[in-house]
Amino acid sequence: MAQDAFPSRTVRLIVPYAAGGTTDVVARMIGQKLGELWGQTVVVENRPGGGTVIASTTLIKSPPDGYTWMLANNTHVINEHLIAKLPFDPIKDFTPLSTLATADYLLLVNSSLPVNTLQEFVTHAKARPGKINFGTHGVAGLTHLAVNLFQAQADIKLQLVQYKGAGPAMIGMLGNEIQVYFDAAATVLPHIQSGKLKPLGVTGRQRVPVLPQVPTLQESGLPQFDVTIWYGLLAPAGVPAPVAEKIRAGVATVMARPDIRSQLAMLGVQPFVSVPGQFEAMMKSDSVKYGEIIRAGNIKPE
User: For the chain, is the Cβ count within 10 Å smaller at the N or the C terminus?
Assistant: First the structure.
């Protein structure tokens, strides 16, 4: 009967990043609407630090009753390949409740490069091995792993330039210090519209609504390329299945709302609610894929 009454009190939603970023904005948006749906408060708690490990450790110390969640992304499963003594198993120690949404990057080049398509860029880069700079912010972040995968699949060699953050990296891109960069469509749209940057492809499986003319990298000659950011709710391992399903059903209801879909679109995020079993499969698949990239590139954490 207690499960039927869920939720009967305040829910705690941990965000592993500081306030203001995309993950935090999505958490607060979804938390508010779930709270309204259930007539209970969903409190968002920011626990940044440790590459999301602090938040994850906090979560698994919580009771597995469905009242404490964390909004995770791909970093959750990438960490096990970078942190030698991770204090948890990213799969076994968590209950995957539901994905919320996905987002893709754009492969961007500086407008100074005489290329307009992926194939033109690959040809250009092959003639200049190690001469074209690509930028990332954060060693072993998803954009860094995406570029390594891109180089391997396109059979090209680029030169890495590390920046302290996304802001400095974009300044470097606009100033032609770097010529290649991966970033979200919502972030770079003004620079594309002004002609300073050229989008050559989308990293995921579908084109982005704000730039429907830009093909995916899969469409353009890299059929195996797929780098997609996912956002999903995790709970400690052992949450009763009926409670987990009620949370997933609540997420599905909220994510179907036109106002939520519109707000997410402005962030460059697409609603995506997983079916039971799908979220765990995604996490396992990403762990294998990014683990291989990290080992192949001998990538070490900062």
Answer: N
CA atoms within 13 A on the CB side of 181: 34
Task: Report d(CA 112, CA 117) in Å as an integer.
Answer: 14
Give alpha helix (H) positions in the chain: 22-38, 53-60, 75-78, 118-126, 142-154, 166-174, 185-193, 241-255, 258-266, 278-296
Please write the tens of the pLDDT for every residue from 281-294: 999 999 999 999 99
Residue 52 contacts residue 215 (beta carbons within 8 Å): no
Domains and CATH numbers, the chain: 11-102+229-296 (3.40.190.150), 103-202 (3.40.190.10)
Relative to beta strand 42-46, strand 11-15 is parallel
pLDDT digits 0-9 by tens, 28-73? 999 999 999 999 999 999 999 888 999 999 999 999 999 999 999 9
